[in-house]
Amino acid sequence: MTQTNPLVRKFAKGASYFKRYGGRMTVARLLQGMGNKIANSAKGKGKGQYPLGMLVKFSDAAAVDWVSEPHWKKNPRSLGSGPYVTAWIMSPPGESSGGHQNIFRFLSYLEAAGHQVKIFLYWSQSIPVDAERVRDMVERSNNYPSLKASFALYDPAVGVGDDVDAIFATGWETAYPAYLDRSNARRFYFVQDFEPSFYPVGSENQLAENTYRFGFEAFTAGKWLARKLHKEYGMRTHPFDFAAEF
């Protein structure tokens, strides 16, 4: 019997997990595994040394100065009566990403109302992501609605485009490129969880919390989150009810 190389098995397992759960969950699991190895490794040169990455690019986190008024606040885009062009910056979805499925349902509602949707995939890790393969996966999957939306990797040198009326951040890490984009489009935040609570007190906890101070207008999952973001961070919020399937 031919034995499969352990490295090949690990790669196949990781690829399967990425395909099913998407980029955010895959990175979180990798970091958790690395952290356990570091904690359990013996002391010594070269042992327990792993390069840990975050969901947000360090360059983006360092570039945001949320204390100063951003360009899109000084000269906001004038909006007519529509239809509108919307850009959604998100981590790469997986076949079973619950948060992404919720986002895509809202995107289908936007398209049904006559608005245009652009999807930009934001990724901070060295593992390559193919936007076309992600689009094909979404189109084949029964977990996602059918969309006309375009898919592209987010490139800060290009941005979302001058035709975009509104930029939506969809997770704390995507709020950074949304803030920094050169477009004067209105900024919004699709918030499904209080994400700082995902981390112990530290860099990621603080970076996630700071995004609620960026001046975005939020659409939140439930009224509790809307009240919390408004009361504690001064955000203008619009809650939506939780979905139920009967």
Automatic annotation (TrEMBL):
Every copy of the WsaF N-terminal domain together lies at 165-214
Per the UniProt record, one Pfam family is WsaF_N
Looking up InterPro entries in the UniProt record yields:
WsaF_N (IPR048510)
GO MF term (any one): polysaccharide binding
What is the name of this protein?
Glycosyltransferase family 1 protein
